[in-house]
């Protein structure tokens, strides 16, 4: 018999519900992950109690989706979603059920779930309830729909992408009939909102096996949700891009930059905006993509200038990205590991020594220049910029007195040459 460790808070919720005469189980992803020996992200509970009844039994609850039967129970600052057994009504548009109906039957609730591995429930009294052989599919390492795949994908097209996402998360294959339906109905993903697509793509990319993205290409899913993959496949470098992606550190910005490495700043920022990513993601990823096209600098002054021009905020990401990218045939340049190592060490040295790499670190500012007689306006910026670039070249110059001297010398030199010209 399969035994699952349930956190105390979850046990308390199950016990409270059961003591009041209701059925209650941990359900879905948490049961799947616990069976697999993985730590679940969150624990969901399914119960025969109606939302109002759940609310009555716990001190602190939040109405998360009362209409769909979901109440969040708060215990020790953690939220647990408790959802009433339900049957999803007819699906209107390949996205949402028209209505939901509560039921007293656990198996009816499990039936509405997407994949067999996600349709198992557990409590300490009844053990595992596995009406669709989720355990068998975990053993066979496969993603299989509950019920008829084409029917389930017609109800909710997001499940098509979820099939690929779970394959990547678990390193499973998609079962044959399910996979056929994925290919057949991939076009339906057009009906799904970009936000929901983004959430699934993000999980796919950040999974243990992002190389499973290849399935999205083979089944025609990427053509609908991420055509950039089809573009790089057509260029003949798709496999290299996927290799880069799957070898890349598990970092949100770096993995997206890997996937977008064959595009430029404008194109990648367009793609990410279309997927409704936040501004920071759009900005950071597209700048890494752009930076990766440059030659890496190999002298200290060159690196300081590069930090300034590329941006301090992304420079560490940029170096890390290049560690992987430089070794790939995609970069089109030969950059040795030694060069990368020297570059990184030099960068660390610059940071440790707090050398000047931004205008605000310059030991002279606009106010100083006004006091020195420079008229307000554009000239101040020009002077500061000139001094700043000199300091980037030689950090020793970043002292107030030295900078004033450089400024004065430059002024008098300019005055003399102006007089000579007259
Ligand atoms: P993760 O660990 O990535 O959160 P999960 O299995 O918990 O995976 P969720 O999206 O959090 O996935 O959904 C929780 C559960 O709800 C699933 O395990 C599944 O039983 C059910 N579910 C979620 N989305 C759907 C869907 N589109 N169609 C049918 N059932 C779904
Ligand atoms: Mg979950």
Structure description:
With 422 residues, the chain is of the alpha+beta class. Helices cover 53% and strands 10% of the residues. It contains 22 helices and 11 strands. It has a 7-stranded mixed beta sheet with strand order 3-4-5-2-1-8-9. Strands 6-7 form a two-stranded antiparallel sheet. Helix 16 packs across helix 18 (312-325). The protein is elongated. Adenosine-5'-triphosphate binds at residues 28-29, 41, 44, 113-114, 118-119, 156, 158-159, 203.
How would you describe this structure in keywords?
binds adenosine-5'-triphosphate; 22 helices; 422 residues; alpha+beta; elongated; binds magnesium ion
How would you briefly describe this protein structure?
The protein is of the alpha+beta class. The chain contains 22 helices and eleven strands.
Low-confidence stretches: none
Largest beta-sheet details: 7 strands, mixed
Report the total helices: 22
Approximate helicity band: 40-55%
Kindly report the spatial arrangement of strands forming the biggest sheet: 3-4-5-2-1-8-9
Identify the overall geometry. elongated
Briefly note the structural class of the backbone. Answer: alpha+beta
What is the alpha-carbon Rg in Å?
29 Å
Q: Number of DSSP strands?
A: 11
Task: Tell me the layout of helices and strands.
Blueprint lengths: L7 H12 L4 E4 L1 H7 L8 E4 L3 H7 L3 E5 L4 E6 L2 E7 L1 E3 L11 E3 L3 H6 L9 E3 L3 E3 L4 H6 L2 E2 L5 H7 L2 H13 L2 E2 L1 H10 L8 H12 L7 H6 L2 H5 L1 H8 L3 H10 L4 H8 L5 H10 L4 H13 L8 H11 L1 H14 L11 H16 L13 H6 L6 H16 L6 H22 L1
Helix pairs in contact: 6-8, 7-9, 13-14, 14-16, 14-18, 15-16, 16-18
Bound molecules: adenosine-5'-triphosphate (ATP) and magnesium ion.
């Amino acid at each position: 018999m399969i035994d699952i460790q349930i956190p105390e808070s979850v046990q308390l919720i199950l016990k409270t519900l059961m003591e009041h005469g209701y059925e209650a189980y941990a359900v879905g992803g948490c049961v799947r992950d616990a069976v697999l020996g993985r730590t679940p992200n969150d624990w969901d509970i399914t119960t025969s109690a109606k939302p109002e009844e759940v609310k009555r039994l716990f001190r602190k609850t939040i109405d998360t989706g009362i209409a769909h039967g979901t109440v969040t129970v708060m215990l020790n600052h953690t939220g647990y979603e408790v959802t009433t057994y339900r049957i999803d009504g007819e699906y209107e548009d390949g996205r949402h059920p028209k209505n939901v109906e509560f039921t007293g039957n656990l198996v009816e609730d499990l039936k509405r779930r997407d994949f067999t591995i996600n349709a198992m429930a557990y409590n300490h009294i009844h053990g595992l309830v596995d009406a669709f052989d989720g355990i068998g599919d975990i053993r066979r390492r496969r993603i299989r729909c509950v019920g008829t795949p084409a029917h389930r994908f017609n109800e909710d097209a997001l499940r098509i992408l979820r099939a690929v996402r779970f394959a990547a998360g678990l390193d499973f294959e998609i079962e044959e009939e399910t996979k056929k339906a994925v290919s057949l109905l991939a076009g339906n993903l057009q009906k799904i909102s970009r936000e929901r697509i983004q959430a699934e793509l993000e999980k796919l990319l950040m999974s243990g096996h992002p190389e499973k993205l290849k399935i999205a290409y083979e089944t025609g899913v990427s053509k609908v949700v991420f055509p950039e993959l089809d573009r790089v496949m057509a260029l003949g470098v798709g496999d290299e891009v996927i290799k880069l992606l799957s070898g890349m550190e598990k970092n949100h910005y770096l993995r997206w930059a890997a996937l977008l490495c064959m595009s430029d700043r404008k194109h990648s920022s367009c793609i990410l905006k279309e997927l409704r990513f936040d501004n920071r993601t759009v900005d950071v990823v597209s700048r890494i993509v752009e930076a990766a096209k440059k030659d890496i600098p190999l002298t200290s002054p060159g690196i300081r200038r590069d930090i300034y021009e590329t941006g301090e905020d992304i420079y560490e990401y940029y170096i890390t990205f290049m560690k992987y990218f430089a070794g790939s045939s995609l970069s089109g340049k030969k950059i040795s590991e030694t060069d990368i190592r020297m570059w990184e060490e030099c960068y660390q040295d610059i940071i440790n020594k707090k050398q000047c790499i931004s205008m605000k670190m310059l030991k002279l500012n606009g106010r100083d220049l006004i006091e020195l007689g420079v008229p307000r306006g554009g000239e101040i910026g020009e002077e500061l910029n000139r001094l700043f670039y000199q300091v980037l070249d030689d950090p020793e110059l970043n002292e107030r007195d030295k900078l004033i001297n450089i400024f004065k010398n430059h002024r008098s030199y300019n005055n003399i040459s102006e007089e000579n010209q007259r």
